[in-house]
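Running this now, will post back.
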Amino acid sequence: MSERTNPDRNLALELVRVTEVAAIAASRHMGRGEKELADGAAVDAMRSQLSMVAMDGTVIIGEGEKDEAPMLFNGETIGNGEPPKVDIAVDPIDGTTLIALGRANALAVIAASEGGTMFDPGPCVYMNKIAVGPDAAGSIDIRKTATENLELIADRLNKRLSNLTTVILDRPRHEDLIKEVRAAGARIRLIPDGDVVGAISTAWPDAGADVLMGIGGTPEGVISAAALAAMGGDQQGLLWPRDEAEKAEAIEAGYDLEKVLSIADMINADNCFFAATGITDGDLLQGVHFDRGVARTQSLVMRSKSGTVRLIEGQHQLEKVSRL
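Update: finished.
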């Protein structure tokens, strides 16, 4: 790629405007039991704002096919068409059930990298993952058992295994994993949805998480990889076809289902970007708060090339924002 087409600025500082408007739009549906309406509002707001960002973007991983919800679809062109060329992974709401029920940790998130560098998982919408923060980076191996990984992480962190906190999505498919982690003696934080928050929390000070384990979405896996690349964390994944038909489709498309995917495999660039805005209050970010015609937001903005992580608080005058 030429110098002209590579991102030469912190694109995350522009993409955070996208997650802010998506979060504000979605937050109006908080607790109303309408996850499709919330997702649709976030998608519409996100797409509108993306059209104003100076980039020639392509959605490599969109959200929606898995949940039959509104989406920014794979292959969609976004931005105003000017350089740089970038790949995009987007999740207008990480945790649609969370927003529908008014629960914690719903986020609007987006990740970007230089064009041609983002992993496209094809037909595989789920991935088995393990993620840790910078202090445990390099200690994990997804091919090992959960117990072996917990022992390796405990040794690296110089902690008792019984003091480790493991984040796991609360799903029937994780019944055996939960039993093994409990038998090993580690603590467990079961989360109902939103494993982007789970992955980032392993690298976020005071979040109280040491490792994320289990099967979650591939969009979330790639988005988490961008964040952890900026934070110095570590993540590995294995594609996890849901059934034999999906497995056969992936193999026919040339995917190696035994290949361990590192952060570098998911985003093959040293210059990637991440932005997230809280929709509901959570472990990492406050959600959208409304007060006298103003919406207050809190966002995380990251760039891997500089390793910069910013916490941004915004105050948006709703009348002016609506005119835009």
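The longest helix spans residues 12-27. More later if anyone needs it.
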